[in-house]
Amino acid sequence: MESVAATQETPRRGRKRLSIIDCDIHMPTARDEVLSYLPRHYREQIDTFGMRLPTQGAMYLNGAKGGIMQDQSFPQDGKASSLLAYFQTEHLDKYNIEHAILTGLGDYAIQTTPDADYAAALCTAYNNYGIDHYLANDPRIKSSVMIPKQDPLLAAKEIDRVGSHPQIVQVISSNGAEKPYGHRFYYPIYEACVRHNLPFAVHVSMEGIGINNPPTGAGHVNHYIEYRMARTQIMMAHLASMIFEGVFDRFPTLQFVMIEAGMLWIAPYIWRMDQDWKALRSQTPWVKEPPSEYVRKHVKFTSQPIELPPDESLFLPLMKSMFAETNLLFASDYPHWDFDNPFKSFPKMDDGMWDRIFYRNAAELYGLPARRSETEGASA
With contact defined as beta carbons under 8 Å apart, do 178 and 116 qualify? Predict the structure, then answer.
């Protein structure tokens, strides 16, 4: 979403010409084309009973018009080619996006069913559909491996199956979970991530749905805005779990990406973890460094939705405190209702910081090349 102050900012002409990397995009899918990738018995079950998945939208809603911006009207002809053409015009070309990171094709509800075999079949179907219909037809599009996280061995198998594809750049899971992500239950997933040099990303969604735990420690909430506020506390629990369970000591090359959970809250949370670690470090002796060091070395954050402090003078100090210049990635959350326009969503910052957040941090994380305009200029 854009603040009043932010919408008054005019993008600098030089920046507007520079391409960017958008790290949180939700492409719609052509349902019938996806289902054609499923085994016959699952297709027959879906024809008879529906998708067999608990849903977040039916329980908590998601902003306006089914969670989509009101001015976005994706084609309804059931063809992936039409969806792709619309996406290319309305987002990639419009905002000069050089690399677009899809944060999972398919509904995160796949990760809420107790039937792990069915979840694995759906993940395979969505991953194959994305490779065939989107990645093969536009090199700007990169994607994330959808995994059946409720069964880490099956999840690792899916990562091994598609993780070496050159346009697959990370593994993704929902924020809603049965256990905090530092738990050893998930180690097979991290072993597979390391084998393929893929970051492990967690995207807010599915908190309290299906097999996942309630969205707050006090239980379920009634309204979407409460649900939305509760997501940050769950992401906090995952981050502390990853550090204090020793995941980054066991997997020293693993990168952890936190998507759509906000960003400025991270600064005081880091301070709190460092402060308490000094007094309690004897209980977790395998944690060798202050938590802030693990965050600086292993954790990336996406920008949307941005918390803008009423006192704008607080913005840059908080950005510095959360290592934004090296660890923050721009994300628009297209086409969702709280979309962040890359030209208007941030307060003013210097060109170096802007360049890191809108391109270089993501390029380094995902192993993407420098801007075409820069390499073409160098070779001219």
Answer: no
Q: Could you report how far apart the first and last alpha carbons of the chain are, in Å? A: 40
How far from the centroid of its chain's Cα atoms is residue 104's Cα?
A: 8
Over residues 232-266, the pLDDT tens digits come to: 999 999 999 999 999 999 999 999 999 999 999 99
Confidence of residue 64 (pLDDT cuts 50, 70, 90): confident
Dist CA 107 CA 123 (whole Å): 10
Q: SS3 string of the chain?
A: CCCHHHHCCCCCHHHHHCCEEEEEECCCCCHHHHHCCCCHHHHHHHHHHCCCCCCCHHHHCCCCHHHECCCCCCCCCCCHHHHHHHHHHHHHHCCCEEEEEECCCCCHHHHHCCCHHHHHHHHHHHHHHHHHHCHHHCCCEEEEEECCCCCHHHHHHHHHHHCCCCCEEEEEEECCCCCCCCCHHHHHHHHHHHHCCCCEEEECCCCCCCCCCCCECCECCCCHHHHHHHHHHHHHHHHHHHHHCCHHHHCCCCCEEEECCCCCCHHHHHHHHHHHHHHHHHHCCCCCCCHHHHHHHHEEEECCCCCCCCCHHHHHHHHHHCCHHHHEECCCCECECCCCCCCCCCCCCCHHHHHHHHHHHHHHHHCCCCCHHHHHHHHC
Q: Tens of pLDDT along 95-126? A: 999 999 999 888 999 999 999 999 999 999 99
Q: Give me the pLDDT at residue 2, please.
A: 47
The CATH number assigned to the domain with range 17-366 reads: 3.20.20.140
